[in-house]
Specification:
Number of helices: 17
Structural class: alpha/beta
Largest sheet: 11 strands, mixed
């Protein structure tokens, strides 16, 4: 079977610290936090009253969706996904036309977690069992698992595979790899991939009950997310969406499209909740195997990786993640690649995390820089026993980059790792 080279020709992002690709690029270069205090969470007696929520006003909504589409629209996650996906599609050089013909060469894998909870709660709250038919027609699209792909696929007129995946914190990374394989195999010329996540009390409440979110920074929200830090006290919840257009190199060159980077390969696996892995904890053997198999699929050596964009959530599992990287790469101390975590700026965006972080990873390759790990003034001592402190930059670093590895690890003991390369380097 012929394997087609796969490149990234468009991106879009809706993040807590910026909406839109240009603004997001500036935000991550400056190390700008998008984490803020939310009075509603305090009123509901949450222990963690901070989180990352994108700033989306009515004027911006109306630039993307019609009044009819917005009628009864209450799913923030789907809204974020539509904005990011439409931006990525236009960034790749395509026109959005509701009267266009079905595009059978283009498809989509766009993941989500839990969508439309507020809408469903509102509907249920207003009816009883005898009035259940009054839930309203808007409930279906906003609460069904594939709501984002249904909305966005129709807006863009995509006729190839159009689906939604859901794999906890690995959702966005998994979507990218699923789309990559479809283009690589020649089953599609291009695939729009990404993921989105809703926000608010009904999404974050369970995590607050689990005591895995920080409660130490309600008065200093921008300092709350501390991946790899000695005083990390739990993750900060976030939300948003990221989207990327994957396209065969032949198609991109024929269209004379701009190319951000090339995806060399990757891997998805599960630890099966064995050998120390549980519903909420990783099987380290599987994590290491995922990384090793991703390098094999990309046909690269460990020594070729210049940087890592980790999962790194600011929990007690951060040192274990670093240990798994050192074992998989067989690189420690000063030999370890530079590593960073976008969660220091935007929190943990749950199902959207992998997609938003992938956009940030590709921007680093395109513009040749490493964004800073903010709030990591004192690195966790267990991490310093494994890698050198200078491998965790806390300021913007301009650096020649060829290959970056990006990984996500999710609830259910599921893992994903992507290897991307600078297209300029290859050409």
């Amino acid at each position: 079977m012929i394997k087609h080279r796969v490149v990234i020709t468009g991106m879009g992002v809706v993040a807590p610290n910026a909406v839109g690709l240009d603004s997001f690029l500036k935000a991550i270069q400056k190390g700008r936090s998008g984490v803020t205090f939310h009075q509603k969470l305090k009123d509901l007696k949450f222990s963690c009253c901070i989180g990352g929520i994108p700033a989306i006003g009515e004027e911006l909504k109306n630039q993307y969706l019609t009044p009819l589409q917005l009628r009864g629209f209450d799913s923030a996650g789907i809204l974020y996904g539509c904005i990011a996906g439409m931006d990525a599609w236009k960034d790749a050089g395509f026109i959005i036309d509701k009267n266009s013909k079905t595009d059978y060469d283009s498809g989509m894998v766009f993941g989500s977690g839990t969508s439309g909870v507020e809408k469903f709660r509102e509907a249920i709250y207003n009816v009883d069992n005898h009035k259940v038919r009054r839930l309203g027609s808007n409930v279906v699209l906003q609460t069904m698992a594939s709501g984002i792909s249904a909305y966005l696929g129709g807006i863009l007129g995509l006729g190839n595979q159009v689906t939604t995946n859901s794999s906890a914190c690995s959702t966005g990374t998994e979507a990218l790899l699923m789309g990559f394989e479809r283009v690589q195999s020649g089953k599609a010329l291009r695939m729009l991939v990404g993921s989105c996540s809703d926000d608010g009390a009904y999404i974050w409440g369970g995590f607050d009950a689990m005591r895995v979110m920080t409660h130490n920074h309600n008065k200093t929200p921008e300092k709350g997310s501390k991946p790899m830090s000695a005083d990390a006290s739990g993750f900060v919840p976030g939300s948003g969406a990221g989207a990327l257009v994957l396209e065969s190199l032949e198609s991109a060159l024929e269209r004379k499209a701009s190319i951000y980077a090339e995806v060399l390969g990757g891997n998805i696996n599960s630890g099966g909740q064995r050998s120390g892995g549980t519903l909420t904890a990783p099987n380290s053997q599987a994590v290491q195997k995922c990384i090793i198999d991703a390098m094999k699929d990309a046909n690269i050596k460990s020594s070729e990786i210049d940087a890592i964009n980790g999962h790194l959530t600011a929990t007690i599992k951060d040192p274990l993640e670093i240990e798994n990287w050192t074992k998989a790469l067989q690189r420690k101390g000063k030999e370890f690649p530079i590593i960073n975590s976008l969660k220091s700026m935007i929190g943990h965006c749950l199902a959207a995390a992998g997609a938003i972080e992938s956009v940030a990873t590709v921007l680093q390759l395109k513009h040749q820089f490493i964004f800073p790990n903010i709030n990591c003034n004192e690195v966790h001592p267990d991490i310093l026993n494994l890698i050198s402190k200078e491998k965790i930059p806390t300021v913007l670093l301009r650096k020649k980059l060829n290959i970056i590895a990006k990984a996500s690890f999710g609830f259910g003991d599921v893992n994903g790792c992507i290897i991307s390369v600078s297209y300029t380097h290859l050409t």
